[in-house]
């Protein structure tokens, strides 16, 4: 059973890695630039020359979709990593220590958690302005509190364990106890949560770009591509369906990967 789960994880990781490699080499594989315009080829349907058709500016949709994969997936990975890092560090501190500073940090996390994620991300991105970096910062701002609460709830019972008390009596510093003794115990759930969040983050990045608060044209980003093509939904539906399908497939792959990782780690914990 464990071998089957390991093979499934390897397969899903391989598909995601293959997609990233293809996105980085898209221009060389397809011999089409995702940004070069050919107005005479505008809104052409799928053909042997352009497998997924062209957009309103005559740009190859397959090349742009692959280029969008690089931007969207790398941004999502960066957001998930940064959110997990910030939230976990605060959660470690709040779970191990007590006092007014801990109470203030937890109340701050609760304030962030009380808002609908996408609504708050739209508000933050609107304040910061458009752009991929600002969109990533907005999503990070609403994602880190989840990790703070998760890690804090995992750490609180651990600080009363005998091996933690033994480490304190042996003269271990707070940093050594947190990162050498406690962090290995909580890193698994944090990793699984980050993997589960990747699909949601990709959707949020695309949503902000669709609303004009993320990557702006001519950037090859799936949400932005759908937004700029929505006026041609009836006459050239492939211009919307192609980036939309890319979002659905990518989110599904990450969701399957996260579920497989959770099953794998749960099996190890039970054993």
TrEMBL record:
Transmembrane region(s): 71-96, 191-216, 236-258
Annotated source species: Megasphaera hominis
Signal peptide: none
Keyword Membrane: yes
Subcellular location as annotated: Cell membrane
Family indicated by similarity: Belongs to the binding-protein-dependent transport system permease family.
Protein's UniProt name: ABC transporter permease
Location, primary (coarse class): membrane
Pfam annotation, one family: BPD_transp_1
Gene3D superfamilies: MetI-like
Domain ABC transmembrane type-1: 69-258
Entry keyword set: Cell membrane, Membrane, Transmembrane, Transmembrane helix, Transport
């Amino acid at each position: 059973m464990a071998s089957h789960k390991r093979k499934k994880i390897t397969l899903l990781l391989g598909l995601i890695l293959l997609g990233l490699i293809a996105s980085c080499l898209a221009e060389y594989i397809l011999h089409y630039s995702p940004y070069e315009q050919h107005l005479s080829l505008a809104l052409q349907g799928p053909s042997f020359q352009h497998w997924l058709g062209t957009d309103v500016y005559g740009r190859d949709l397959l090349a742009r979709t692959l280029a969008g994969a690089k931007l969207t997936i790398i941004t999502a990975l960066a957001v998930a990593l940064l959110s997990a890092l910030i939230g976990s560090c605060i959660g470690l501190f709040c779970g191990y220590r007590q006092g007014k500073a801990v109470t203030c940090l937890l109340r701050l996390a609760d304030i962030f958690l009380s808002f609908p994620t996408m609504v708050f991300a739209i508000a933050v991105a609107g304040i910061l302005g458009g752009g991929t970096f600002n969109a990533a910062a907005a999503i990070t701002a609403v994602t880190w509190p989840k990790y703070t609460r998760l890690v804090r709830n995992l750490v609180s019972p651990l600080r009363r364990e005998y091996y933690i008390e033994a480490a304190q009596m042996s003269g271990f510093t707070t940093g050594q106890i947190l990162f050498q003794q406690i962090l290995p115990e909580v890193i698994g759930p944090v990793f699984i949560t980050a993997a589960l969040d990747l699909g949601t983050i990709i959707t949020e990045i695309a949503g902000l770009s669709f609303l004009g608060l993320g990557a702006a044209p001519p950037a090859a980003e799936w949400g932005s591509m759908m937004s700029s093509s929505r006026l041609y939904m009836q006459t050239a539906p492939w211009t919307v369906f192609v980036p939309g399908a890319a979002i659905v497939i990518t989110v599904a792959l990450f969701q399957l990967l996260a579920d497989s990782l959770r099953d794998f780690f749960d099996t190890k914990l039970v054993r």
